[in-house]
Specification:
This protein is mainly β. It is built from one helix and 15 strands, in the order H-E-E-E-E-E-E-E-E-E-E-E-E-E-E-E. The protein is elongated.
Length: about 280
């Protein structure tokens, strides 16, 4: 009889503990996410206009992340290079392609990537996107004006039209509508600066006046360089990538010291923005 009484007591204690302790901890993080790779560099120029840099690959949607996952923020491409990938757990996003162009010592073909770089028309049309969501760079006018870099929302504009960068994608994940992942404008030997949009940098004009880098943490492409005489000029550096997560405010993330991030609260949600670095995140 004593053994039976002890068994009932143990079962009762077990059930009471489970009722008081609530549901088991979450094993995956259900989040809304915007993630973008680094943008490509604008094309260099010598007595020509360089192509605009392509935007980094863009992801926007919902995702289930494991209780421990890695995050890497892609850097924007420097001289004559594509942007670097952004990584979130098993999701890898390609950097944007560099803009085409050339200096007195080197020729640069437009690069493929998240979106393609624009061309200066010495090597042909702007490069393609390597993945389905990106867009092609625009075609330039030989020795005169570069095509715009491709954006996540639309292709770069041909130099014969404007040389502007392709549009990006607008998201309100942080509470305000922000456009990101736009292409850089191409460079031009004369006239108005071709425009970069949604984080893409403007292309240069004349002696590289007004050339811009892609905006940080948008994945925008750098503006193409401009040179109206025999002098080497560099295009704008691509904008760095970003990862933004919006999730239930009952969850607290433990973020490794190798990542630069900030967290805000909006109603029932937390919004964490990762702007640089690489490390592991747990919860």
């Amino acid at each position: 009889m004593a053994v039976t009484s002890m068994s009932r007591s143990s079962i009762g204690d077990f059930n009471r503990f489970n009722r008081l302790s609530g549901p088991p901890p979450a094993t995956s993080l259900q989040a809304e996410m915007v993630a973008i790779a680094g943008g490509g560099c604008g094309g260099p120029a010598n007595n020509r206009g360089g192509g605009g840099g392509g935007a980094g690959e863009y992801y926007g949607g919902t995702i289930a992340l494991p209780s421990s996952f890695d995050v890497t923020i892609g850097a924007g491409g420097p001289f004559a290079t594509s942007g670097s990938p952004t990584l979130v757990s098993l999701t890898a996003l390609l950097g944007g392609g560099q803009g085409g162009g050339g200096t007195s010592t080197v020729g640069v073909a437009p690069g493929e990537g998240g979106s393609g770089g624009g061309d200066d028309n010495t090597t042909g049309a702007g490069s393609i996107a390597l993945i389905g969501d990106g867009n092609q760079g625009g075609t330039g006018i030989a020795s005169t004006k570069g095509g715009g870099g491709g954006g996540a929302g639309s292709a770069g504009v041909d130099a014969s039209i404007s040389g502007n960068g392709g549009t990006g994608v607008t998201s309100s994940i942080t509470g305000s509508a922000v456009g990101r992942a736009g292409g850089g404008g191409g460079g031009t030997k004369s006239g108005a600066n071709p425009v970069g949009v949604d984080g893409g940098g403007d292309g240069g004009s004349g002696n590289n006046d007004g050339v811009e880098d892609g905006e940080a943490n948008t994945g925008g492409g750098g503006g193409g360089a401009a040179s109206n005489f025999n002098a080497d000029r560099n295009g704008g550096v691509g904008g760095s990538g970003v990862v933004i997560l919006k999730y239930a405010n009952s969850i607290t993330l433990d973020i490794g010291v190798g990542l630069t991030s900030s967290t805000t609260t909006s109603g029932d949600y937390k919004i964490t923005t990762f702007t640089a670095g690489t490390d592991t995140v747990t919860f």
